[in-house]
Amino acid sequence: LNYRMISLLFGIECMYMAGLRLMGFGHHTRWGWRGSRNSPSIGIAIAGFVLFLLGACGRICADFIKQAVNRQREYLADAMSTEFTRNPSALVGAFEAIQTHRTGGRVLHQNAGQIAQLFIVPPIGQLFSKASHPSLEKRIDRLKQMGAKYPDAPKRKVEASNPSNASGRPLIPEHSLLFVAQQALRNIPGPCWEAAHDKKNVLSLILALLVNSAPEEEQSIQESLASRHLNSDQLSVYHEYRRLLVSMPTSSALAIASICAPALKALDSSERKSTLDTLVAFIKADSEISLLEWSVLMIIEFELSDRSDSQRRIKRLRDVSDAVSKLSHAMLSRAELTTEHQRFALKTIEENTGIQLGDALLSPNFEELAHAVRSLRNLDDLPQQVLLKSWAPYAQHEATLLYETLEISFTR
């Protein structure tokens, strides 16, 4: 935008303001229209009206010019960034991430249009050539075309045989999933919520949760274990938590296990070991481990584990192909799919992950699944997201518990 264009736009604005003044509009004027000796003459009013019309038309054109210039500036900024970094795929990934948040970034204010040029994407809804920014789709397309000019550019870190199936976008929960999560948290009784953040009572709460989820014939065995591992104060609140959790739906069980994290992390090393040993003994006391018990144990184990940055991160899914295969089979076998749908799901996950899963579903036991989960915890963020996106469509029925357990273990 050169000085000549700036001067032209400024002149148009001056014509518009002068026309308003001459017509007796503008600021709070003292002039009147009828019977006042201070009224402007008819000739001045007509001249003002003509200037006003010319200025108004010019302002409309100037607005289109301003937005067009701003759109070209955005394209130029993308090109300069690509030339400087020689990595167009990185900017593509950033735009794809922004694209998922775009509707949540609207600025709901009457003057939002005045600062539109300061945003990466338009802060207000705009149509056609009035848009202050080019669409993200067009910017992504241009960047992908620029990628051919930089053959030495780093590739997108997506571990999948078909990149279009796993673009590396952040996993953004759908509104329906967020609603389910909010409902699960709302169903947690107030005293239980407080206990989840209290390291003195957190073990009592978790044991009460596990006993309530067990079959009635096995609850007596676990009751005796609770009496053995809890002191008198813990035992009294344990019975209170059991009463409060009776009517709580199963969907809130993992939410409780997850929000216990701060209290669990506040325990010292000996208390952590004792808590984990108690939970393992408690779960293995009955004849059979349920999926809910296993899920709670995996979440608690994850929260108590050492997750320092010094641990080696696994960057490729094929390095943990056995774990991916076992968990994929476990997910699909609990999703209650038809045989045809199972085959389709296996092929889809194979395409997304690049790992062969076979044609028939297997049924790994809980010990094998626990080993698989521990193996995948050291995956880099991007392959973890690829897995979660591949499994998400099949998180139904009992598979929901397994998926939520993996999601909690991956995304902390």
User: Hey, roughly how much beta strand do the residues contain?
Assistant: under 5%
Computed Rg = 32 Å
**SSE arrangement, N to C:** HHHHHHHHHHHHHHHHHH
The helix tally amounts to 18
Low-confidence stretches: 26-35, 157-176
Q: What topology does this entry show?
A:
Layout: H1 3-22, H2 42-85, H3 88-101, H4 136-146, H5 175-186, H6 190-195, H7 202-213, H8 216-229, H9 232-245, H10 253-259, H11 261-265, H12 269-284, H13 291-304, H14 321-333, H15 339-353, H16 366-376, H17 381-391, H18 399-410
What can you see in these coordinates?
- The chain is mainly alpha-helical and 412 residues long.
- The chain has 3 domains: 3-156, no CATH class; 187-304, no CATH class; 317-410, no CATH class.
- The chain has helices at 3-22, 42-85, 88-101, 136-146, 175-186, 190-195, 202-213, 216-229, 232-245, 253-259, 261-265, 269-284, 291-304, 321-333, 339-353, 366-376, 381-391, 399-410.
- α1 packs antiparallel against α2 and α10 packs parallel to α13 (291-304).
- The longest helix is centred in the first third of the chain and has 44 residues, at 42-85.
In short:
This protein is mostly helical and 412 residues long. The chain has 18 helices and no strands.
List keywords for this structure.
412 residues
